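A favour, since you know our structure tokens better than I do. Just paste the record in under my message, thanks.
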Amino acid sequence: MAHFARNLRPHIAHVHPHEVGLFVLLYDAADRFEVASPFAREHLLPMLIPSKFIQMLHAAIPGDEDGNVCIGDVLTSDTHGCYLQSTSRLVAAVGLEGHVVVETKDAVLIAPKNRVQDVKDLVNKLKKQGRHETALHREVFRPWGSYDSIDSGTRFQVKRLSVKPGASMSLQLHHHRAEHWIVVSGTARITRGNETFLLEENQSTYIPVGAQHRIENPGKIPLHIIEVQSGSYLGEDDIVRFEDKYGREKS
């Protein structure tokens, strides 16, 4: 344990907090997650006992004066020996002792540190209830970056797309939905049918149903786009791929 902690310390800064939460909260399905950090994929995926994982994190990340490891927007009072992580909102803890609190965009886990391994029972209950949290996640990582589903309703869905510098999505089309893209930051190279053009910040475009399209990031900084989908069916399986630089299966 101590040896692993010494090895982990130089790398922990490169592991995205959201990845840590995934391993703690949903370790039962850890091998199904795409992880952005090669270090996390190599060293954290094999660790399927969350209580030991928490101990390793405590050894690797300096705690505060009360022995708490706090990641993200966390506020504590009279709380000791806890691991508390926030990824999307404020987490406030009062009077906790030896607990794990992990907040992600999908769910919140609260448990004594020595009971974290029992999360598998909760995961089984979620599966039996047919809850979408076991299969669909608000923020999804892809080889080109990630998307965050920030709103949805009847016949529409809104996503925040983040595309890494030099990365590109597959050349694809959808049979049941159209898409509107608004560039928030960075520069996008857009393929739409036979056209290829650049979009800068505050510019937008429209992708009709059935049109081949692709987003690329030719720049040196991350590209952020707001995507508004509209149509009769918005499932992720409505996709036909023609080209993909990451070797994903074509449709």
Notes: Residues 50-60 form the longest helix (11 residues). The two ends are 45 Å apart (CA to CA). The chain has a mean pLDDT of 80.
